[in-house]
Amino acid sequence: DAGVIQSPRHEVTEMGQEVTLRCKPISGHNSLFWYRQTMMRGLELLIYFNNNVPIDDSGMPEDRFSAKMPNASFSTLKIQPSEPRDSAVYFCASSSARGYEQYFGPGTRLTVT
Amino acid sequence: AQTVTQSQPEMSVQEAETVTLSCTYDTSESNYYLFWYKQPPSRQMILVIRQEAYKQQNATENRFSVNFQKAAKSFSLKISDSQLGDTAMYFCAFSRDYKLSFGAGTTVTVRA
To answer: What is the per-residue pLDDT across A8-22, written as a single tens digit (0 to 9) for each?
Structure first.
């Protein structure tokens, strides 16, 4: 079975541009998570979806960030407008049940210049 | 919020030797899950091992084993017969519900 798929793997953009990160969770998993990893703050949970519904978005930094999950097999994380401080690795993870292990995608390294 | 502490920022081990990584956590809950994840230079987060708090038996996955001490809130990872491919950052993580709380990580370097 394929793991969590993320695209793109690398994204370089200029400040002010819109960035869209994509994720396909493992088939059958009903929980999806977006994380951000930086040297300063480590791994931070941005948002959690359960059965395609956002349950906890308290980690979303500000209104410039938004996430959607239109169906069970696809999610997006959008940053508009992007800023240099958004540079980080963004991970998507999925899980089959609450409390169970989360399986991570390969991550997207975002660089905003 | 749960706090996960990894007190060893870096560790080095000779190939084929054993290394133990420490992890402590703070919680008032009795039912929860603990995990160790590995992040090699490729940056992929890989699940290494999982422990359910209600199980007294320590989890084992091939060369990886844990020492789970519930009363002490301690969850150490032992890597036996270390291999060069074990070089990575290792994160301890706590889960009570859906949230994973991660420690700061321990960088393990396996020397040839």
So the answer is: 999 999 999 999 999
Q: Establish whether the linkage from the previous residue to A81 is cis, with ω within 30° of 0.
A: yes
The predicted pLDDT at position B96 comes to 84
Burial B87-107 (b: 16+ CB within 10 A, else e): bbbbbbbbbbebbbbbbebbe
Distance from the Cα of residue B2 to its chain's centroid? 16
**The pLDDT of residue A62:** 84
Beta-strand ranges (E) seen in A1-113 are 5-7, 10-13, 19-24, 31-38, 42-50, 53-56, 65-71, 74-79, 88-95, 103-104, 108-112
- In angstroms, the separation between the Cα of residue B110 and the nearest Cα of chain A is 22
- Cβ contact, residue pair B98, A98, below 8 Å: yes
> What is the distance between the terminal CA atoms of chain B, rounded to a whole angstrom?
40
The structure tokens listed for A89 are 């690795």
In chain A, residues with a C-beta closer than 8 Å to the C-beta of B95 are 99
